[in-house]
Design brief:
Elements: H1 52-59, H2 66-99
Length: 100
């Protein structure tokens, strides 16, 4: 592509080269009809996706409740800690039974 066939302008998002075309109603418009652009130019919006928890809450028709979520996380941690302590007690009892 030569410098004569396109301008130095680029889309800041997708880096495609932009063509400068005079508007049909302007006095600088060419006398011949403008060639239609194929494919049509799509406008991209810059956005970030929403948090996954909010999306899943909407999908499940629930609202995100941080207090309930933190209580549930605390219950899960307590359950894991109890299971870890029970496993440690069981290992200690087994070692004592083997050494006796």
């Amino acid at each position: 592509m030569s410098r004569d066939s396109h301008s130095g302008l680029q889309c800041p998002h997708c880096r495609t080269h932009l063509a400068l075309v005079a508007a049909p109603d302007s006095p600088a418009a060419p006398s011949r009809p403008a060639v239609p652009v194929d494919p049509p130019v799509l406008v991209r919006e810059e956005w970030t996706p929403p948090p996954v928890a909010e999306v899943l809450a909407q999908y499940a028709h629930l609202s995100k409740d941080t207090a309930t979520a933190s209580r549930g996380a605390a219950r899960v941690r307590d359950s894991f800690n109890r299971a870890r302590q029970a496993a440690a007690r069981k290992r200690t009892q087994q070692r004592a039974a083997r050494s006796a």
